[in-house]
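#struct-help
A.M.: can someone run this one for me? Single chain, 1117 residues.
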Amino acid sequence: MGSKEEFEVNVGELRSLMELRNQEALDKINSEFGGIDGLCRKLRTDQLNGLPNEKAVLENHRSVFGRNEIPPVPAKSFFRLCWDAMKDVTLIILMIAAIVSLALSFYQPNDPKKHVDKSEQQAGWIEGAAIFIAVIVVVLVTAFNDWSKEKQFRGLQSKIETEHKFSVIRGGEAIDLPVHELVVGDVARVKYGDLLPADGILIQSNDLKIDESSLTGESDLIKKSPDRDPILLSGTHAMEGSGRMVITAVGVNSQTGIIMTLLGATKENGKDSKDNSKNSKENSKENSQQTKEERSQVALSGITINGDAKKVANGNAAASVVASEAAEENTKTKSVLQGKLSSLAIQIGYIGSIVAAATVIILIVRHCVSHYVIQHEEFNVSDLKHFIDYIIIGVTVLVIAVPEGLPLAITLALTYSVKKMMKDNNLVRHLDACETMGNATSICSDKTGTLTTNRMAVVQSYINEKFYREGHPKWEDLDEKTRHLLVEGISVNSGYNSQVLPPTTPGGQRTQVGNKTECGLLGFVLDLNQSFEEIRRRIPEEVLVKVYTFNSERKSMMTVIHKEGGGYRVYAKGASEIILARSKFMLGANGSAQKFEQPQLENMVKNVIEPMAADGLRTIGLAYKDFVTKDPSENEVLISGDIDWDNEQVIREGMTAIAIVGIQDPVRPEVPEAIARCQRAGITVRMVTGDNINTARSIATSCGILKPGADFLALESKEFNARIRDSDGKVSQQKLDQIWPRLRVLARAQPSDKYVLVKGIIDSKNTKNREVVAVTGDGTNDAPALKKADVGFAMGIAGTDVAKEASDIILTDDNFTSIVKAVMWGRNVYDSIAKFLQFQLTVNVVAVTIAFIGACSINDSPLKAVQMLWVNLIMDTLASLALATEMPTEDLLKRKPYGRTKSLISRTMVKNIVGHSIYQLTVLFIILFLGENLGLEVKRWPEQDDPPNIHFTVIFNAFVLMTLVNEINSRKIHGERNVFKGIFTNPLFCIIWITTLISQVLIVHFGGFWFKTKALGWKEWAICIAFGLGEIIWGQIIATIPSNILPKFFSFGRGEVQPTSILVTGEYDIPEAGVQLSKETGGIKPAHREARPGQILWLLGLTRLQTQILKELVEKR
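D.P.: on it. Structure tokens below:
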């Protein structure tokens, strides 16, 4: 192993170098490091061959200059999470209430007039102890949830890290490595769309332009070159061009790493605990820690860093920019489901408030009338106890009304789905993308790689006025000049990182590395029995004069080389129509340049391009242009001085076309069926591609997107824009609404076209339930559309880092069928939450009603506080776990999507909730008011401190058993009759259901004073079981009632709601990787509060505490 003395430069010198820019950096490189050559020599690396691919050498570099990773915050232990959970304000108040409650239960005033019942004292301390036990349960459950979420987060973080790879040269060979394996001294290859994972000095560049806005806030692209500005920084994006750089700083020593350090992301101890406690009202503990963990991960992939801008305002300007941007971006709007749940929470809040207020008013009025009007009693201070008790009963009713198990159900459904979706090639970066995908009504898909195999091959060509429709031309049959220009143009005018490698097995396919279109062309060179590698060795990348890299605006690529004998040659390739439109000449039958004008262009389009496109081929034009210093031919340009290579318009005009080739990219065999499944599921699939209209139409027909005889539109970009824009050139939503419902193919699309289409569909109010749009993208310029879409899918294989950063889900196999699987999982998440809501709201309606009626009729609730604790807390948790872990089935694709505004609680669900609530309330009221007729021992008006009785125990037991059976009914939310279908495919549901039933039996028999229960006999159990099983029969009766007889307003939780501070969610407060890319789906800002189960316990504890305090005060009076 080497030592620091082997290197003539240290980390500090390199860090100070990377803080400079432009000429200042160049001066320092030349004066202190001896230029680029001297810097490479000091780093023991080679500009052309890079570092040796030897473990000892690489480890030596890591030991001296550090690793390309930022140490994550150490995971909190389970005990630390328990301690954090105990800091919850509601739990602290609850524990104080428990202590006071226990103290009051043991303290008895010496009053000889008052009879002291020992059982009453026992009941007092047991109820106080029950509060403590409840606190322990809540703390353990909360800590376990936090621990499991953190474990899941780290697993997702690790997965994303390994997905991000970068190309480097080691031992003279180009290889792709995970970014954390890069070391200082590596020669890295930068290409269009890359997110730079480390700092470096540019060695060679081809029209390289960098977006440094993530560090500097400057939106303009910065042109980089070895002789102007060679400094490349981690976390920035390569938006145009290509190049090579020598890495000079990694990990915490890179510019992103330095900012991360300033933001406190690498701190290993809680030095900011005071700050965190101050901000506890606004940020959850998980949010505080996991944001740092997340940003430490994304520092290597360039994603915006989160943090507190105040901490770094005086430390680093770039850090301030990043932190302030993150602060703005963290105001992430809600997803479709979040919007609907928030709306539902408001509606439940209104209903609960009305019922609670009515309860209090009725109790107070009844007391006043009976005591002060009828009995003519005078007001006494002790009467205040009754009024306060009435208010407490009203608050308890309100607490019961809120489905506090909902956040846990959301968390479980989403995290469970994320784990399973990874196996289906969907790497979810934003949790809410799961459920949003279930609502998708429209998918705007790329063609290349998603619908097709992305394995390009030239299958047709037009060379020297001869159309080769079957097979390739023979090398010896081609004109000598033409074939030389053809193979040299393809070899040189392609990214040098694009290669075609020999098959690894005899008879196998060649391996394509890099841009697949270029690989198809290079394969054509090999099919002509020529070597592109020999040409590249003769013309290495370093001697290229200028490279105009391909982008969506140019639709072409040009490379300038030195011409033998003086002058320059420009090679061009691109979309055939564009290349031919720029051409004034074309190589004829004998290789001579012939004039190429409008008639020849029209003939070429009709007889060559359109037939190729009709066969589903992508047509590529190849051309060249010579600049000579003397004796110019008709198609050459005479030059006498320097050429302005920045004047691209002049350079590209007057070309000489060499050939037209047709590249085949076969449709994936599984795609037509996948698209048919989407269409059966009510999802419209649109293809947005850069290919010409004929190629696009052919592929779309093969896939099933276009169907013969159907009234669908297939438009090119020009016609699309002409139809949707007004006289001022602005997009008209009204005009767009006339186009998009029938549009199926958009060809020759610019990135702006995709964005306009996506935005137009999302904003349109043309459809009943509004559209939810998913988009696929792989290029850097797809980022705006990916951001705008409700769900953005980036290609894991062909996608650029910028596209992946802008996405919600990464398709690790680039396959459209994986999108269909995402739809299934999304609908499953949506349905899981709807199932839980149907179950939970039935429980809450019954509980609120029985508490309200009981309070008004017998001045007490038949369901006691501890019993409600069991129903509300334990059964919520277990039910959410059981109903949120159902596996998706093909049946999910047999219904239409919900859309953006369709009610979360449908009329069918309302019918089930109301129907089962009526059944359960009828049973409970029969037991309560007609229990004698059932042979029960009735005690309808118990004193406050009476021991548990059979009457109220039967009510509690019957309620829980009916609820348990209704949990089976709740597995189906679309009116299905067979509620047992698939029940054994979810063993977790069966285990939880049986466990809950056993727990209920134990509670009834052994609960005693703890749960206010008395052991039941066989007769009482028979009554409870019979009423419980009656739920199944009643469910079948409800299923026979058609849902459409209910009014349309019998549905709740629509997506279009006003902004609110309520955020009904469990996991959304915790940002996932890349969460800074805000979505515009729900239009609601998130709240900074989080609901804890401790709040319910707090109110129950205060009820007990206030009752005891007032009781003592009254008795002392």
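A.M.: thanks! The longest strand covers residues 199-211.
D.P.: also worth noting: Confidence is low (pLDDT under 50) at residues 1-5, 109-123, 265-334, 1055-1117.
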